[in-house]
Each structure stands twice: as structure tokens, then as C-alpha cells.
Design goal:
homodimer, three-stranded mixed sheet, 6 strands, globular
């Protein structure tokens, strides 16, 4: 099997997309993460769900989750309001290491796809041909395809 | 909202579960990862899908995915056979840092749940009461619950 046979339709967002809309898309389509493209369509990064939480939760609370107790329940539930007037670029880690973007070309074999996702600890890899995203492969779909029938 | 209200049913496996069965469960139930318990039911680790790929793909290929080209397509598709006669314990990283297991108690607020997942880069957190797993919260479900209605 090659990456292009494994690729499934996967919605993409751009670095300038509205953050709230992007997170809503991820939740609604039950995606493990988002593929973020530049304005020209080239993949720029994969944004896993846990990275969105890193943006929402203040750094000192991440360092010591017990400090979350200083927030009352209402303030805690309003965490998401930080997405208002933010873009997807704001959600991304600073200076993403370009090497670590999980992208494969259509010819990649399953082991290459697996290696790229393993290396980047990513739940999804983008399949790219001619600088455009053809689709994506999730860890779950890859494992499902590799698994012998029960 | 509190963790116990957000918790959803989530199948667990133990460190001694058959690795192939565990991965099949994850693929079939479309889970972002597996909650791994000790024999006594206490949560021991969360195993995200990308960690399973880290077990399957030889280290030197992870370090340089281009080396995957030495595998032909058939050998690549047979990657999964490494799961035969393995247990879930084999899939886990060595000496997991006990601090980094994404576990919250039923009383935790949403920000505490978010902080624990963000810190561990985990797609899921286990909700525990009286040393037993009550259920789990995925990043996706947490974001979905926090999101204002469209």
C-alpha cells in the first residue's frame, strides 16, 4: 500500500483561519487534529488537539495543574473564549520545527508513513503531491489497514 | 462542569493484554488512544496511537524516514506482525514518567482536565475515583463541550 491509496479526505485550515471556526471544525468532524496550510495551499503544520489546550491553559497552570483550583467553575468553562479574535497561527507552537511536520508524498510506503507520524508524535500525516494536500492518513486508519482480518 | 460529568465510557486494557487485541480494539472503537491499567484496575499509562507506531517502526527508520525505502512494499505492510506475541507492556515507552499520566479525579474542573492533557500532550485523560477508572475525556469531547453553540 502507498500513501495515496491510504489518504482520506481531510479538511484543511490556513494559518489565517479563525481559531474558533477551526476548533469547531475539528470537534464537529471528529478529527484528531487539523492540517494547517499556508495561503498557497502548502502544508505548514499539523495541529493536534492537545496543542489547542496548550494555547488555552495558562502556562503556570500547565506546569502545576493543581493551580487550576484558583479558577472557579465558571471561569474554567470560559477558557474557550481565548479563541475569540485569534487565528490558527496563534494556536501553533512558536517556531515550529519544519522537519517535524508530518508530511509524506503519495508514493510513500506504510512504514514511511508510520515513521513520519511516530517521529512527530502526530495523530495524522498529510499526503502531498505537487505541493498540494491530497488528503490525510490518521494513525487509526493506518493501523486499521495494516491489521489482519479478525 | 466537572470531570465526572464529562467522562464517557472508555474501554481499558491492562499491561498484560495481548498487543494485537488492544490495537484492534483501538481501531475498531475509533479511540485516540488506550487507557492502560494495572491488574488491580489502577490506571498506569495512556498509550496514544503514535506510540504504537514508535513500537512498530525500527528506531533507525524513525530517525531518518527516508531509510524506509530499504523496505519493499510487502515488508512494509507486514510491519504489524511485530504485535504477535507482544503485550501492551511492550508497546509502552520505557520507564514512563509517572507524573505524566493524564489522570484527573471526578471533581476536577475543565481547566484542570485541559491542563493535564496539555502537559502530557495526550489526546485523552482518564477520570478516576477510588482508584478505579470511571471513564475518560478526549480532547475532542472537552473542546466540543466548551464550545459555545454555533
Amino acid at each position: 500500500m502507498r500513501a495515496r491509496d491510504l489518504a482520506q479526505h481531510f479538511p484543511t485550515v490556513t494559518v489565517d483561519s479563525d481559531a474558533m471556526e477551526a476548533v469547531r471544525l475539528m470537534a464537529r468532524e471528529q478529527l484528531p487534529g487539523l492540517i494547517v496550510c499556508e495561503a498557497n495551499g502548502r502544508p505548514y503544520a499539523v495541529l493536534p488537539g492537545s496543542q489547542i489546550l496548550r494555547f488555552l491553559v495558562p502556562r503556570y497552570v500547565q506546569d502545576d495543574p493543581a493551580l487550576a483550583r484558583v479558577y472557579d467553575e465558571k471561569a474554567s468553562d470560559e477558557l474557550i473564549s481565548k479563541l475569540v479574535n485569534s487565528t490558527v497561527r496563534d494556536l501553533l507552537p512558536n517556531k515550529p520545527d519544519i522537519d517535524e511536520i508530518p508530511v509524506v508524498d503519495g508514493d510513500a510506503t506504510t512504514i514511511e508513513v508510520a515513521a513520519v507520524m511516530a517521529r512527530a508524535h502526530s495523530p495524522v500525516a498529510a499526503v502531498v503531491e505537487n505541493d498540494q494536500v491530497l488528503g490525510a492518513i490518521t494513525v487509526r486508519h493506518l493501523l486499521d489497514q495494516l491489521m489482519p482480518s479478525a
